[in-house]
Amino acid sequence: MIVFPNAKINIGLNVIEYRNDGFHNIESIFYPILNLFDALEVIETKDNEVHFTSSGIKIPGDKESNLCFKAFQLLKNDFPIPFIKIHLHKNIPIGSGLGGGSSDAAFMLKALNDLFGLDLSKNQLIKYAKELGSDCAFFIENEAVYAYHKGDEFQGIELDLSQFEIKIEYPNIHVTTAEAYAGIIPKLSTINLKELITNPIADWKKGIVNDFEESVFPQHNEISKLKYKMYSKGAIFASMTGSGSAVFGIFNK
């Protein structure tokens, strides 16, 4: 079975407060980018172990640290599924804020559910995905949402950008989550992101912001230049996505 885990962008990202569990409460709009994706192949094997190979962008760490492997182990703990061979062709840049690793994990859960007939509901898959990472659960339904709490609770929204062109540029800079949060002072938002997203896109830059730009841009001037490059080329709205470092621009086709 081959599936194609896609990327996502954050339209606005407000870091609201610290949590007692070491995470932060945020609010953001998650929007799927279907034309930027990895390729994930899952094959049943008779061996008594999981095989993991990859191609494309080099993936750091060992097999056990990969979210695809962790997703398999999570279901293996609860269901008598056979061992598998995993091949991941990595195309979504790592450390870019595009959610590639989370998407790989969520699509692994969905692939295993289909491949082995586990009959898990969407809510059950979402529950498993939340154990793997804060935004993994988004990719189960893979539709535009208002995300809150740790970025793992969602409200569906009406947002269709299909009549626009979304361009993404990656400056080949890996911004770690720890680095991005280091310069952040959480604060309650004075805007209503769910209301702002209903305004014309040309008005978004008047109120929709990504708080991480405040901490990341001073450290990586190349990323801030990408944002202004988007506007100089005619973007209606441009922003860094997630904790960086990719920048997207929304253009008229």
What can you see in these coordinates?
- The structure is a single chain.
- The two termini are 34 Å apart.
- This protein folds into 2 domains: 2-155, Ribosomal Protein S5, domain 2; 159-252, Alpha-Beta Plaits.
- With 253 residues, it is an alpha+beta fold.
- The model has no long low-confidence stretch (mean pLDDT 95).
- Strand 2 and strand 3 (24-37) form a beta hairpin.
- The protein has helices at residues 67-76, 100-115, 122-132, 138-141, 177-182, 193-196, 212-216, 221-232; strands at residues 2-3, 6-18, 24-37, 39-44, 51-56, 84-90, 145-148, 153-156, 164-169, 237-240, 247-252.
- The protein is globular, with a radius of gyration of 18 Å.
- 40% of the residues are buried.
- The longest helix is centred in the middle third of the chain and has 16 residues, at 100-115.
- Strands 1-4-6-5 form a 4-stranded mixed β-sheet.
Topology:
Elements: E1 2-3, E2 6-18, E3 24-37, E4 39-44, E5 51-56, H1 67-76, E6 84-90, H2 100-115, H3 122-132, H4 138-141, E7 145-148, E8 153-156, E9 164-169, H5 177-182, H6 193-196, H7 212-216, H8 221-232, E10 237-240, E11 247-252
Parallel strand pairs: 5-6
Antiparallel strand pairs: 1-4, 2-3, 3-7, 4-6, 7-8, 9-11, 10-11
Helix pairs in contact: 1-2, 2-3
List keywords for this structure.
253 residues, Ribosomal Protein S5, domain 2, 4-stranded antiparallel sheet, 8 helices
